[in-house]
Structure formats: structure tokens, C-alpha cells
Amino acid sequence: RSTSSNTATKPRTMRTALLIAGLLGLVALTHAQVAARLDSQEVRLNRMTARLDGLLGNLESASGGAKGSENSIAGLNGKLNAKYGDDCPDGQFQCGGSDPQCIGNLLVCDGDNECRNGMDEQVCDNPMPKGSVWKGRMSWDKCTARKPDHMTLTVNTAFDDVRVDMEVSMAIEKDTEDVSASAFLLAPGYYDYAEKRLVVKPPETDNLGIVCKFNTGRSDKCTGYIVRITTLEKCARIDFVRQ
After folding, report:
1. How far apart are CA 70 and CA 83, in angstroms?
2. Which residues contact 148 (CB under 8 A, 6 or more apart)?
3. What is the pTM of this model?
4. For position 103, what pLDDT does the model report?
5. Which of 71, 77, 200, 227 is close enough to 210 for a disulfide, judged by CB 3.0 to 4.6 Å?
């Protein structure tokens, strides 16, 4: 009876051993699969982290260049408005944004928000303060008697209101092979916030004044023309850069 019992126990023991071995193998396989899956997830996580770092870097670069982008956009808007208009009648200011609105130029920078988006009180920086000096080079000239090569504008006074009333001095220079000539003139003028332009009234009896627009997105340059002040007909081109 004892021998029979021992004989019956052996297969049972072997089955138990095989079962344990199978379980251990399954555990080892499962562990390997889990480890492989974790490794795969770690690789994916590393890739995602690298992509996130790249996106953050691009965002920082974009933020660093935001001012330049803003100037470029302002310059482009100026060119488009000059060519196609801004959908506002003459003498009116375009508030812009997603809800376009036109208001009178005299309402710009008066201390009250007439634009629904408040833009009329956000354009009130005067790029031509008292004491600023601007050097201009003549590109072409169909109307002046002196035919200058260069002109220097100096803002002598600037009184800020809904526009900036100024007194401007003009040093005009003409260089030839034989002689250099110059002239010095004084004239009243003003900077118009709504139009972003300087207007210099005629200093002499020839009815010629200057209109210079800040339409490039930069506050140190303006696109200037000598004009017949009664009709604003352009008859000479002179662009100014702040010194």
C-alpha cells in the first residue's frame, strides 16, 4: 500500500513542479513584456518631451521677435491702406480689429475711448518730440526752386493736444561741383495722431509744404513728400530718418 501511494504521489509532484515552472515562466514573460512596454512608453515620453521642448523654444523665439513682427505687420497694413484704403472716409480714423469702426480724426487721442476696442487712445505716441532731428535725402524733385540734395528738420517746439503743434526749422543743402549752397527756414507744423503724419506748412510764398507719413511700422523713419499744400499734389520725394 505504501509503494502504491508513493507511485501515485510522483506524477502529482511532477505536475505541481511543471505548474510552478509554467507559472514562473509566465511571470518572467509577463515581466519582460511589461518591461518592454515601459521601455517603449519611456521612449515615447522622451520623444514627446523633446517635441515639447522644441515647441517651447519656438514660442520663446517668436516672443523675442514679437516687436519686429508687430512692426512688420504695421508696415504692411500701412502699405495696404495706402493702396486700397481702410474703408473709412477722408478725415476719419479706422479703429480696426475684428469689429471695424470709423470715427472722426479729432476724436483720436482726446482722452476718451470712442473706438469700441479703445484703439483711438492707443496711438498717442509722438515720434517727433521737441529737440528731435531728422535727416532727409531728396529722391526726385519737380517743383522746388533750390533743388536741394538734403534737408534737416529740427523740432523746436511741440505742444501736445489732440494733435501736436510744432515749430520746425529746416536746413536745406545743395552740393554741386563748383559750390555748396544752403538755406535756413522756419515753419509751423503739426503731427496728426490719426493719420500718423507730420505736416509742415509752407515756409515761403511758393505754397510748398511737407507731408511725411509714418507708414512703415517704424517710429524713426517717415515717408515724405513736398506737396502743393492747397491740393496736396506730390511734386518731390524726400524720406526722413531720425538722427
Report:
1. 20
2. 138, 141, 172, 173, 174
3. 0.65
4. 97
5. 200
